[in-house]
């Protein structure tokens, strides 16, 4: 990316939606604008994991305003990330459909580990470069992330299902606070976080940093009250807790630096922070300036090149971990991409779609070490459940569907086939797997694939190709029959 390029990151959190716009300059991102709206999406999530119509309307209205600000931005300049609430919501697709329409850009729902990676990336890139061992904690609306790393590289990442919105709703209904309620909330938080002691062993870090809303609010109140600036201390937390209990209600608490939009979730966030201090026996924590949205901005720069794209490194790691035959994976990749380039609709974004098809091709055999016969099923399961840094949950699911549909009947992916782009990707992957069946380089230069809108793929071979490759020609006939039960057709011209 060139210096001066504007980049934007959106964090669709459980409590607030945030938009950060920055300008790339000499490898760094300079803030241009920051917008935040308290949406309380997580507060609209029912016990049966359904977002309320009112919560969805609040989210759509906010994203429409953010979308207006982002008019003129290209897709490569924007990344929108959704976290715990939309991970949990059973009706998230209903929300995301309209949300992406009013925003004008895709929204990535990321897994907990990916959220943690982005948080660490955002925090550390706003800290001085150092080799210190850093423990980063982020108390969000419905999840809390804990990350241990050295310098810019995260080493251990975990996400726990508790946050300021969830804990405030559960333990401080109506905003009422008593000493008993606060103690109960702290104990409950420690019970959820207790397993973190096995992952993050005390003494394995040099400094602790806390990011995002809860940490920012606590640090601001403590600084204005005369505590060490930019720090959260055990003494300071006890001081806030004492005043909150004495007030008896979050609306009655009078502390300089406490903003009205933070009041409804203060007690929940405070109780979780107190639990972390007690669990890890901390005495002080640094307030971090960076957060998930800054990490997403850095990720946009990394994604501009395969050399720095985290997803590329993840694909290589998965291929190595599951002992993929590298030569065969490369054959299938090259064949699939070559065919896809012949049917892709002219669009500057097709390079990115080709990249995702290439990843699916390189990973199409990751399930083979479990079962050769059902390798496609096992591979799809792995992709749907693996912690894959850099990938959003929808990206991983699309890769899993391509791997699942690479062979056999197409009924198992019939819903996805309603998407023309997916149908093109899957057609090219299936043909590539078929043509590489002998685990040798196929004579793909003798084949030409065309797409005839709106539903026909036409594969033409050079004269004599079918005679020279009778097994491949027979497999293509079987493939054409398989597509007859779908909205798409494969027409063969094999002279």
TrEMBL record:
E.C. code: 3.6.1.11
SUPFAM superfamilies linked: Actin-like ATPase domain (SSF53067), HD-domain/PDEase-like (SSF109604)
UniProt keyword list: Hydrolase
Segments forming domain Ppx/GppA phosphatase N-terminal: 23-303
Pfam families: Ppx-GppA, Ppx-GppA_III
A GO MF label: exopolyphosphatase activity
Enzymatic class: hydrolase
InterPro entries per UniProt: ATPase_NBD, GppA/Ppx_hydrolase, Ppx_GppA_C, Ppx_GppA_N, PyroPPase_GppA_Ppx
All copies of domain Ppx/GppA phosphatase C-terminal, residue ranges: 310-479
GO annotation terms (biological process): polyphosphate catabolic process
Entry-linked PANTHER family: EXOPOLYPHOSPHATASE
Protein name per UniProt: Exopolyphosphatase
Originating species: Tepidimonas sediminis
